[in-house]
């Protein structure tokens, strides 16, 4: 299952449709908090998350996940790519950091990569 | 004495002029009265010496001339009637002396009234306003020194001319409707454009008052014109400078908002691209999923429109245009502004509370400028909270109908933050240009806000909140007439 977090519904819906068109299951969330609170969270094989969101940002969520020791592959998407944030994401071991709008091939490349390296501790 | 001074000026230059004339006129009367045996009151003709005297000499002079005439009359009588004081001769003497006395008194009185009038007329010359009187046929009957100076036409040239054609008057309304208003109210005032003698154009603030005769019929119009050309020019320049400054600060604000703007534009674009790719995927399946493909295309369309709305909003904000006053709903302005600033608030973990009352009277205003004010207040609030830790970041935006004591109705906006607030020393300077509490602030924001709000006939104020932060309040007057 691919988890998608974006506070913007239209972006959320678009990514979800793209992922489903490849035959993957998806689960969408409007905020990082909603994702963390969800019972679906453990089933996620890959997380696509927006960076700038009200309350908890994508980067903060990433820190929380790493602190919990979850090795969930994370792909960041952002409409305002800042070098500082990109570096932080990469240093933290993020799978990808994409500026919106992005190519389907690029994001799907990361998704496939995440699913290939699936041995994922529960 | 001022009266004497004027008299001497009006007299023909030399101080000997009048005595000579008086002598030339009085001598033949005396000669005829004394030497010819006519049984008539010849001495009555002395009034012809007394009456013009008022024009040349003062009160004492007139009295002296009268005394002289009485003396000459008496001398003639004594010479002619040395012994026989017959009664008819005495009656003729009495008639002559009475005529001379009455004429003297009337002349003195007339002189007094004339000099009072002349003094009043001189007062009209002291003012720098151009004052002239024109009769109902528009012919100029009075023209003061101010009018001579302003228009370059001398009194002699102006008198008798038609005012509107001499000054090539441009009226703010049809002359007929101004005339009607003048007759109805007995006065009118407004801005007129006139041309001076040298062809230059002047704008005057013109006040007209209708003069009536005793029967209440209008007879003339007194027009007092105050040259406001310079004032109009500086007003226009000030407005232009303000428009440019407002534009510059808007652009600067847009610079501060780059992240939010990029987000606003890229978000729908990302949705368009991703939906497009998804659509291709749905169509390219072994069994094309037309339902999904159709949904994707619909999303593409709505996101395309959304992107173009964002661009339109930004273009309006970046445009440099003269203020354009239209009926505006303050709630719409707030929502537009918030759309641009929302991201900024989110990125500083600020929760935005909206309390927009639906029943809000429309105001008359320039949408872009008002939006600028709201953006500015919101950005200030966000920046005031950004550096604060340890308490909730809350931005409250409320609108409601404002009713003043006098029943004047308006729309009110309140922006309330929980930020660092402002220390009492700085509070007095918040609206001052080039004053900023921010490190990189230009100090133009609130100063521009205030001039925009005041240009809209409104007021902007602030207060420290009881707990934390500040509240800014903007009050704008409601639109007077509903534009259909």
Quick overview:
Chain A: Residues 1-115 form the Response regulatory domain. Chain A: The modification 4-aspartylphosphate is found at residue 50. The complex is a heterodimer of chains A (122) and B (484). Chain A is an alpha/beta fold.
Task: Give an overview in words.
- The complex is a heterodimer of chains A (122) and B (484).
- Chain A has 122 residues and is an alpha/beta fold.
- Chain A has one domain (2-116): Response regulator (Rossmann fold, 3-Layer(aba) Sandwich), CATH 3.40.50.2300.
- Chain A is built from 5 helices and 5 strands, in the order E-H-E-H-E-H-E-H-E-H.
- A 5-stranded parallel β-sheet of chain A has the order 2-1-3-4-5, sandwiched between helices.
- Chain A is globular and about 35 Å long.
- Chain A starts with a strand and ends in a 6-residue tail after the last helix.
- The relative contact order of chain A is 0.17.
- With 484 residues, chain B is of the alpha+beta class.
- Chain B has 4 domains: 2-125, no CATH class; 128-227, 2-Layer Sandwich (Beta-Lactamase); 231-322, Helix Hairpins (Orthogonal Bundle), CATH 1.10.287; 324-484, Heat Shock Protein 90.
- Chain B has helices spanning 2-10, 17-35, 47-56, 59-80, 87-126, 145-151, 155-158, 163-166, 175-185, 229-256, 258-284, 290-318, 330-347, 367-386, 424-427, 445-455, and strands at residues 130-135, 140-143, 187-195, 201-212, 218-227, 326-328, 351-356, 363-365, 394-403, 409-416, 459-464, 470-477.
- In chain B, the strands form 3 sheets. Chain B has a 5-stranded antiparallel β-sheet. In chain B, strands 7-9-10-12-11 form a 5-stranded mixed β-sheet.
- In chain B, helix 3 (47-56) packs antiparallel against helix 4 (59-80), helix 4 (59-80) runs antiparallel to helix 5 and helix 11 packs across helix 13.
- The model of chain B is unreliable at 1-12 (pLDDT under 50).
- Chains A and B meet through helix 1 of A and helix 11, helix 12 and helix 13 of B.
């Amino acid at each position: 299952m691919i988890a998608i977090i974006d506070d913007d519904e239209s972006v959320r819906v678009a990514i979800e449709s793209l992922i489903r068109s490849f035959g993957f299951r998806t689960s969408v969330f409007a905020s990082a908090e909603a994702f963390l609170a969800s019972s679906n969270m453990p089933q996620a094989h890959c997380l696509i998350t927006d960076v700038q969101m009200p309350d908890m940002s994508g980067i903060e969520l990433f820190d929380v996940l790493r602190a919990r020791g979850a090795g969930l592959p994370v792909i960041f998407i952002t409409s305002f790519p800042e070098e500082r944030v990109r570096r932080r994401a990469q240093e933290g071991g993020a799978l990808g950091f994409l500026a919106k709008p992005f190519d389907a091939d690029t994001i799907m490349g990361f998704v496939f990569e995440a699913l290939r390296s699936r041995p994922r501790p529960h | 004495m001022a009266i004497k001074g004027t008299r001497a000026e009006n007299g023909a230059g030399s101080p000997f002029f009048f005595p000579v004339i008086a002598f030339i006129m009085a001598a033949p009367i005396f000669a005829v009265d004394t030497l010819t045996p006519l049984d008539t009151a010849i001495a009555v003709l002395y009034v012809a010496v007394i009456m013009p005297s008022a024009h040349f000499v003062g009160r004492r002079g007139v009295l002296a001339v009268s005394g002289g005439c009485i003396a000459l009359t008496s001398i003639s009588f004594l010479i002619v009637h040395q012994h026989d004081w017959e009664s008819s001769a005495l009656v003729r003497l009495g008639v002559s002396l009475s005529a001379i006395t009455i004429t003297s008194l009337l002349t003195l009185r007339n002189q007094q009234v004339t000099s009072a009038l002349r003094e009043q007329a001189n007062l009209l010359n002291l003012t720098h306003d151009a004052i002239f009187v024109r009769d109902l046929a528009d012919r100029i009957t009075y023209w003061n020194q101010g009018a001579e100076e302003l228009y370059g036409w001398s009194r002699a040239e102006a008198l008798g001319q038609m005012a509107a054609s001499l000054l090539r008057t441009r009226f703010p309304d049809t002359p007929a409707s101004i005339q009607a208003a003048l007759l109805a109210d007995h006065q009118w005032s407004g801005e007129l454009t006139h041309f001076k003698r040298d062809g230059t154009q002047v704008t005057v603030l013109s006040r007209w008052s209708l003069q009536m005769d005793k029967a209440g019929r209008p007879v003339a119009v007194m027009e007092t014109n105050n040259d406001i050309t310079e004032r109009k020019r500086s007003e226009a320049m000030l407005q232009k400078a303000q428009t440019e400054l407002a534009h510059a600060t808007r652009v600067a604000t847009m610079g501060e908002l780059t992240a939010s703007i990029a987000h606003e534009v890229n978000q729908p674009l990302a949705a368009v691209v991703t939906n497009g790719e998804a659509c291709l995927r749905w169509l390219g399946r072994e069994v094309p999923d037309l339902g999904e493909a159709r949904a994707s295309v619909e999303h593409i369309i709505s996101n395309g429109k959304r992107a173009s709305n964002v661009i339109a909003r930004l273009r309006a904000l970046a445009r440099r245009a003269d203020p354009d006053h239209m009926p505006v709903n303050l709630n719409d302005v707030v929502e537009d502004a918030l759309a641009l600033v929302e991201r900024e608030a989110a990125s500083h973990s600020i929760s935005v509370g909206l309390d927009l009352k639906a029943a809000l009277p429309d105001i008359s205003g320039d949408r872009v400028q008002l939006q600028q004010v709201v953006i500015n207040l919101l950005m200030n609030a966000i920046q005031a909270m950004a550096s604060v830790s340890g308490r909730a970041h809350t931005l409250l935006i409320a609108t409601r109908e404002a009713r003043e004591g006098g029943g004047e109705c308006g729309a009110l906006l309140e922006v309330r933050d929980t930020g660092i607030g402002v220390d009492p020393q700085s509070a007095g300077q918040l609206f001052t240009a080039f004053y900023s509490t921010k490190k990189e602030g230009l100090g133009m924001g609130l100063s521009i806000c205030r001039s925009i709000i005041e240009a809209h006939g409104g007021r902007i104020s602030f207060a420290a909140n009881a707990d934390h932060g500040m509240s800014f309040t903007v009050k704008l007057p409601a639109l007077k007439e509903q534009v259909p």
